[in-house]
UniProtKB/TrEMBL annotation:
Database matches in HAMAP family: FBPase_class1 (MF_01855)
GO cellular component terms, semicolon-separated: cytosol
Protein's name according to its UniProt entry: Fructose-1,6-bisphosphatase class 1
Residues that hold Mg(2+) 1 according to the record: E94, D116, L118
Any GO molecular function: magnesium ion binding
Enzyme class per UniProt: hydrolase
Length: 342
């Protein structure tokens, strides 16, 4: 990836993208508001035990998951910042049952924002990287008070997507449909600086990321695929593989954007009613757009994630994303299994 010679702030990068006709003024300002909210969340995360922000909130979200204090704080920060941002018609969060239109009394715009305010929250209390994932859609024409149904657009309709990782450094990864770029938070200056232009995911990899403890609950083709990875060079894949699992999707995807790999959260029969663990609108779609923009691939094991027509705001999907050839290989195991007679 080419290094950047001159420090370029996120603001300057976005102005250049606006001049090039890649973003509207409204979208530029909306991304700036999200980035500012991420800075605030980064400060809260960084306080750790000193800030009293660790531990459970004692509440559950709409998904029936126990919320961490920081899940609630991050959600509130994003809501507050964006309600006054002036560029949105509505927003939706993994932590809220329904989407929220921006009330009349606030300045409003034509975009819809969806977010996972804090991804990987099981890692907060052990001081491992967590992050924020976001996705931007257009509000359908003529709609002034968007409802859940207006957010149900395929991932290929996203106009921007990104995530922020709160790790050893705070980094913002962004696409507005013209490549994927990395910005690192300069903590002294308080601004995001472009540190990697045009990130690319190598086509091939020898590294996979999966929660192996679920293996016995997977479908047959998924078990076969991983068995073949583990046999390594003596098996049909003809090479040895390494494994990583951080259990924060943002951090696992960030590694893949940086050095390649494949990330898989397949369907499992622990809870057969759930079509997957990860959420289409807040996790799978934005990450799939980023990965595709960086030259990788993303499927649900059978079809391209960005082509899925959502039918629920909190819809879950299996996720296979990363290095193109490896995602194609894992997908092929499923499609060939589906084509078997009987
Ligand atoms: O604990 P598991 O089952 O391995 O799941 C880990 C996955 O769950 C997630 O933490 C789900 O995200 P949330 O923390 O936003 O619910 C992903 O970031 C991660 O990839
Ligand atoms: Mg998440
Ligand atoms: Mg979350």
């Amino acid at each position: 990836m080419p290094p950047v010679d001159q420090p370029i702030s996120l603001t300057r990068y976005l102005i250049e993208e606006q001049r090039a006709g890649h973003v509207s003024a409204d979208l530029r300002l909306l991304i700036e508001v999200v980035a500012r909210a991420c800075k605030t969340i980064s400060v809260a995360v960084g306080k750790g035990a000193l800030g009293g922000v660790l531990g459970d909130a004692g509440t559950g979200n709409v998904q029936g998951e126990a919320q961490k204090k920081l899940d609630v704080i991050a959600n509130d920060v994003l809501l507050e910042a964006n309600a006054w941002g002036g560029h949105l018609a509505g927003l939706a969060s993994e932590e809220m049952e329904h989407s929220q239109p921006i009330p009349d009394v606030y300045p409003r715009g034509n975009y819809l924002l969806l977010f996972d305010p804090l991804d990987g929250s099981s890692n907060i209390d052990v001081n491992v990287s967590v992050g924020t994932i976001f996705s931007v859609l257009r509000c359908p024409e003529g709609v002034t008070t968007p409802e859940d149904a207006h957010f149900l657009q395929a991932g290929c309709d996203q106009v921007a997507a990104g995530y922020c990782v709160y790790g050893p450094s705070t980094t913002l990864i962004l696409t507005v449909g013209h490549g994927v770029h990395q910005f690192t938070l300069d903590r002294e200056q308080g601004s995001f600086v472009l540190t990697t232009r045009s990130m690319t995911v190598p086509e091939e990899t020898k590294e996979f990321a999966i929660n192996m403890s679920n293996k016995r609950h997977w479908e047959a083709p998924m078990q076969q695929y991983v068995d073949d990875l583990l046999i390594g060079r003596e098996g049909p894949r003809g090479k040895d593989f390494n494994m990583r699992w951080i259990a924060s999707m943002v951090a696992d995807v960030h590694r893949i954007l940086t050095r390649g790999g494949v990330f898989i959260y397949p369907w499992d029969k622990k809870d057969p009613g759930k079509p997957g663990k990860l959420r289409l609108m807040y996790e799978a779609n934005p990450m799939s757009l980023l990965i595709e923009q960086a030259g990788g691939a993303a499927t649900n094991g059978r079809m391209r994630i960005l082509d899925i027509t959502p039918d629920q705001l909190h819809q879950r999907v299996p996720v296979f994303l990363g290095s193109k050839k490896e995602v194609e290989a894992a997908t092929r195991y499923h499609l060939e299994h589906d084509a078997l007679p009987g």
